[in-house]
User: What shape does this take?
Amino acid sequence: MRNMYLTLPRLIVTVLFMFVSFIMTVLMMDKWGYGYIGGIIGFLLGLLVSYILFTVVVWLWRLLFLTLPSCKRGQCKSYKDYIWPKGTFFGRTRWGVYHCKCNCGDYYVRDGKRFMEVVSFPDGPLRPYKKLIGFRKWTDDSDATTIPPSSSSGKEHC
Ligand SMILES: [Zn+2]
Assistant: This one.
């Protein structure tokens, strides 16, 4: 299961690139009658088009799912100020669970709609900090109970 996180997005991207390039090649060569040169141009155009599509999809994905509040010290304002563990897709470790570290050096975990601070990295308790209440809108969640390390769901699998 774990490998799927890495290979599935790559597979989709590869298929998308190949599919669009193939369609463009066929269109240029057969349908529009540009021959082999047209086919090569079509292939390159296909790559360009799929690259643009891919960029737009990643951008939309970031806009919709990659919303992070400003950090506790107020220094880091957006996802650009956070870094992710190596080898993860924006810090994703499980479905809906993201690990990240802000510029100040503090560690956070986003689990669904909750954004929690890792009190002592890596296995310390999770202290609730912010909660997602709407489209890219965060509210204070610090009154909620701190989640002890033992019940920090699935963290041991990371
Ligand atoms: Zn910070």
Observations:
- The CA atoms of residues 37 and 89 lie 38 Å apart.
- Residues 71, 73, 75-76, 102-104, 106 surround zinc ion (CB under 6 Å).
- Residues 35-65 form the longest helix (31 residues).
- The longest strand covers residues 126-134.
